[in-house]
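4.2 Preliminary Data

To establish feasibility before requesting continued support, the project team ran the inverse folding procedure on a target of 560 residues. The structure was first converted into the token representation described in Section 3, and no sequence information of any kind was made available to the design step. The complete token record follows.
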């Protein structure tokens, strides 16, 4: 329940972030043109404060809002955070999979306990038994902490044995609590470091767009070039690749003024295309595809599509982006692409053809699915923010095919990245899942969604299953079941979104027919039945409104 209540604060937190960012912009402008009678005093800026807040904030949506606010800060934000925006270095996991301490690394998991700690416990027990250290010889002078607990009776009596057992249990219990506190502190430090690494990856492309620098040393261009160098040498893990791709997509969402030379956009476009060649992770490729599509759109959306030359064949343009690899002599085949990336390629082609990217693309998956949204009057009108996809857009403004794609992208992201694990454990599970099945959907999405069981634990109930415990035999992903509500699931789909996904599987859909969509199932869903999909989204809706498990189960069976 605490996590549910904390999520209610996301909107006020985002509003506060916007106010802090607006104050930072105002102060930066005053520093640029200060009054003659005012003496400048340097201190912590709003961007330092926001960056530190992002390291402690558990909500992904709030952290991304902080990244957007800092990314729009321009030169002032870069100067404030220049020492924190270095490219990543290769990380060595501190713990092994069996919970032992990695050689040469201080610290570790609390189990097994260190030998020194166990010796202290046994010595304390030996003192209580009236024996010497290690259990041999007469007892030494008792420690001050144990003097008050010495049994008043002679050794060997029943009362003495009870007191000794009670004291021994208390010592072990205190030791266990201390180890749990140490583990929680290490977990919090690891989470904070991970969030700050993700923030650096988000900000690297965003600051290139908002700053007024030209490409030279000690600029955002140098920072982003350092990230790309690490990526070419395969020293950027999958989660940071996703964050870097999301930063490119956020930067691509800004429409440059018609009379402004978009030198930063050209540089970012080139770097995004280069990154697409070197990454194989499906979600990073999907975000980069969205970014390249936005950069390929003309500033004037009323401009007619050329009959020949650049931009004349959007399908061929999208195919060229996805076919390129790090080796110029090798091309990626379409059938080797991830099914969701192929579907995103279709959406990108339609966005280029219609010049309406807000109907087929999005910037933040969780943010788009969390609000219904509203449309704009005309894409030709220049608005104050000048964004291709304004923040007012939501899932209802998307094309029906894009709505289904957004839903399954979110479900797969929650299964893989949003499990509430320690960052090292989540990364190991993610890399292990996609080491052999890199370009395939898990069976729980492609065939039968019953193992997902999203109702397996609701608010206030105890989680009953670990990742992989519900998977079908032979599944290489080990994602099922769907994480229970609480800390293990950082993103929850709202009830209206789930109901709409269920309604899109009805036989008669006049709105979908207007968009020339005549099949109820998307291409990557053809191997599962409509009844199975409807039951899954009905259970997701029951999960969103915390219905009783038996009630939701009987209702789902009746809907079939």
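Position-by-position output of the design step:
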């Amino acid at each position: 329940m605490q996590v549910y209540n904390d999520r209610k604060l996301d909107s006020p937190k985002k509003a506060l972030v916007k106010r802090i960012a607006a104050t930072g912009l105002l102060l930066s402008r005053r520093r640029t043109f200060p009054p003659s009678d005012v003496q400048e005093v340097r201190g912590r800026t709003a961007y330092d404060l926001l960056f530190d807040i992002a390291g402690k904030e558990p909500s992904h949506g709030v952290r991304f809002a902080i990244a957007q606010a800092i990314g729009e800060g321009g030169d002032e934000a870069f100067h404030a955070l220049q020492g924190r925006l270095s490219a990543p270095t290769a990380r060595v996991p501190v713990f092994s999979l069996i919970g032992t301490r990695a050689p040469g690394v201080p610290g570790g998991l609390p189990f097994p306990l260190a030998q020194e700690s166990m010796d202290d416990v046994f010595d304390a027990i030996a003192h209580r038994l009236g024996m010497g250290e290690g259990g041999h010889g007469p007892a030494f002078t008792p420690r001050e902490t144990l003097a008050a607990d010495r049994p008043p009776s002679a050794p060997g009596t029943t009362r003495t044995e009870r007191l000794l057992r009670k004291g021994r249990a208390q010592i072990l219990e205190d030791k266990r609590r201390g180890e749990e506190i140490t583990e929680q502190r290490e977990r919090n430090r690891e989470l904070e470091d991970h969030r700050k690494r993700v923030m650096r990856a988000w900000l690297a492309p965003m600051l290139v767009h908002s700053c007024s620098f030209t490409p030279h040393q000690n600029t955002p261009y140098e920072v982003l070039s350092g990230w790309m160098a690490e990526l070419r040498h395969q020293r950027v893990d999958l989660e940071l690749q996703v964050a870097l791709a999301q930063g490119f997509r956020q930067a691509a969402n800004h429409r440059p003024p018609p009379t402004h030379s978009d030198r930063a956009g050209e540089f970012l476009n080139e770097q995004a295309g280069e990154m697409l060649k070197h990454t194989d992770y499906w979600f990073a490729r999907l975000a980069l595809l969205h970014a390249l599509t936005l950069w390929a759109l003309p500033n004037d959306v009323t401009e007619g599509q050329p009959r020949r030359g650049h931009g004349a064949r959007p399908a061929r343009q999208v195919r060229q982006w996805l076919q390129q690899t790090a080796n110029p002599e090798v091309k990626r085949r379409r059938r080797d692409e991830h099914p969701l990336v192929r579907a995103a390629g279709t959406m990108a082609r339609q966005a280029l053809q219609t010049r309406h990217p807000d109907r087929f693309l999005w910037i933040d998956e969780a943010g788009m699915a969390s609000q219904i949204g509203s449309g704009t009057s005309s894409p030709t009108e220049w608005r104050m923010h000048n964004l291709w996809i304004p923040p007012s857009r939501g899932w209802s403004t998307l094309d029906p095919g894009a709505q289904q794609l957004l839903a399954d992208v979110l479900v797969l992201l929650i299964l893989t990245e949003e499990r509430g694990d320690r960052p090292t454990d989540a990364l190991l599970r993610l890399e292990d899942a996609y080491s052999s099945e890199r370009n395939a959907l898990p069976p729980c999405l492609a065939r039968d969604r019953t193992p997902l069981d999203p109702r397996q634990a609701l608010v206030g109930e105890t989680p009953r299953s670990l990742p992989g415990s519900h998977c079908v035999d032979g599944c290489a992903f080990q994602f099922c079941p769907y994480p229970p509500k609480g800390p293990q699931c950082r993103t929850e789909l709202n009830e209206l979104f789930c109901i709409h996904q269920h309604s899109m599987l009805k036989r008669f859909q006049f709105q979908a027919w207007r968009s020339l969509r005549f099949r109820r199932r998307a291409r990557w869903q053809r191997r599962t039945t409509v009844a199975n999909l409807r039951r899954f989204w009905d259970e997701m809706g029951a999960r969103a409104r915390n219905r009783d498990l038996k009630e939701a189960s009987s209702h789902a069976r009746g809907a079939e």
